[in-house]
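Risk register update: the risk of archive-format incompatibility is retired. Evidence:
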Amino acid sequence: MSRGRLAALATVLLCVLLLAVVLSEVKHAVGHRGLPLTHASIIREQAAAKHLDPALIAAVIYAESKFDPRTSAAGAQGLMQILPATAYYLAHLSGGSQFTESDLATPRINVAYGSYYLRYLLDHYKGNELLAVAAYNGGLSNVDTWTARANAEGGELTVASIPFPETRAYVQRVLDAQRAYRSTYPRELGLR
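Archived output:
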């Protein structure tokens, strides 16, 4: 093979290699756009402090706000979409005395309160993530009622048996997102 042909072949191989790298980076970037992650250090910190799976915190944030800390029509605020009344209740439970509603706009405080609430719900439901996530969306008293009904009928509450369509979809979205965050962002969430 002549030098010219070898040089042309080397150029083609180099272009193919560069194209593969670029396509891989584009695929990675597109995948991350669909599954955003910001404030990873706050999520890791709160997960460690509250003994939570950081991917669960990220998944709840994703389901609640997609990491866009806007105020909802119902008045829920911040990354974890916490209602001010819930935040005041959590402040009372946790011994917080300096809380003000405007604190919910601060990512560190919002994620701390949302994580505290997740821990509270997980403790209430003896570690059952499905029930805790359902209560985060549908309310503690509703999930207690649904669980009691399912138990009385000899079963347990499953995603499919959640009576509220919005809560059923929310739970599925969070559980799916939790798996996706674990596989997409293991390093950023401190999972390895």
